[in-house]
Amino acid sequence: LNIVAGFDNSFDLVGTTVNDKPILHIDKFTTIVERLHIKIGIITVQKESAQEVCDMMIKAGIKVIWNFAPVNG
């Protein structure tokens, strides 16, 4: 597994790095997924945002989703 980037909507985090991986604005998600042919996504958001993020991943072409949000389903 090669994590290429993290995505967030907080401008306090966008532009920073975690373990040498860039944190990009969520608006760039679909473009990056398509350009790099990413097939696996990891959800690590609050439960209120999990379904929206999941839907966005599916729409972008993600085939496998690891969910670490505190929700079932």
Q: Uncertain segments of ≥5 residues (pLDDT<50)?
A: none
Q: What is the terminal separation in angstroms?
A: 23 Å
Round the Cα radius of gyration to an integer and report it: 12 Å
* SS-derived structural category: alpha/beta
Helix/strand order: EEEHEHE
Overall pLDDT score? 95
**Count of DSSP helices?**
2
The fraction of residues in strands falls at: 15-25%
From the structure above, extract its key features.
25% strand; alpha/beta; 73 residues; single chain; two-stranded parallel ribbon
Layout of helices and strands:
Blueprint: E1 6-8, E2 17-18, E3 21-25, H1 29-36, E4 40-43, H2 47-60, E5 64-67
Parallel strand pairs: 1-3, 4-5
Antiparallel strand pairs: 2-3
Helix pairs in contact: 1-2
Structural features, described:
Helix 2 (47-60) links the parallel strand 4 and strand 5 (64-67). Helix 1 crosses helix 2. It is globular and about 30 Å long. The protein has a three-stranded mixed beta sheet with strand order 1-3-2, with no helix packed on it. It has two helices and five strands, in the order βββαβαβ. The model has no long low-confidence stretch (mean pLDDT 95). Helices cover 30% and strands 25% of the residues.
